[in-house]
Specification:
disordered N terminus, 2 domains, Rossmann fold, four-stranded parallel β-sheet
Amino acid sequence: MTISLLLASASSLAAPGRVVSLDLCSDWILSLHAGSGQVAALSPMGRRFDARHGLRRPWPEHDGSLEQIVALRPDLVLVGPYNALRLRQRLQALGVRVEVTHLPTSLEAVADFERQVLGLLGADLNRAHAPLPPPVLAADAPRLLVLGANGIGTGRGTFENEVIERAGWRNHLRGEGYLRLDMEALLADPPDAILWAAPVSPARANAFAEHRALRALVPPPRWLNTDNWRWECPGPWTWELVQQLQQWRRQWR
């Protein structure tokens, strides 16, 4: 079904009064656009991944069980395409309305995602954020490495690469997709800056980023940090991320 048909279908239904979220990305879009008293409960994922700070107000939370969600008597359950598959199937079998959102895979698709959720909530579609215009990417623009857990870097042909370039940086990596990094190659050709986009923890998954040689070659002022969920959950807040990267780039220059 096309986005336009989805919006038309959503707009024909009454605005739900009790909305439940099943995943982190749905939590955040509800926090942004749901009306006062419209949310029955958010998922437990935000607390689990330390992504509750910054929500626009405190929200009730369910424990992820079928029993508690049914007890909340939701008229709409919101979930992303890859999450809570068995739970949402069981809810649908009980006659609960479950809507699967179409998470954006490009910056241009962010507004469609936002309008889909606004339509499901019975809200004004014009509240969707306008895209930031692409800059002219300078040949000498600084190179940014987006580094995740387990030494995985973000290359070309990804949503993250669009964010990097829309903010006026060049991607340090020339390869496509998500790449396992080689420390020797990285030390031989270091990026101008590193954005550490992984949860803060003492886990072994973070050992690559804590390597002494890498930390010495790319000193602390050139390590940038953002909330991990902003990369995990593309949405209208992505424009705030672009603006943050733009600000860092201007300071760099």
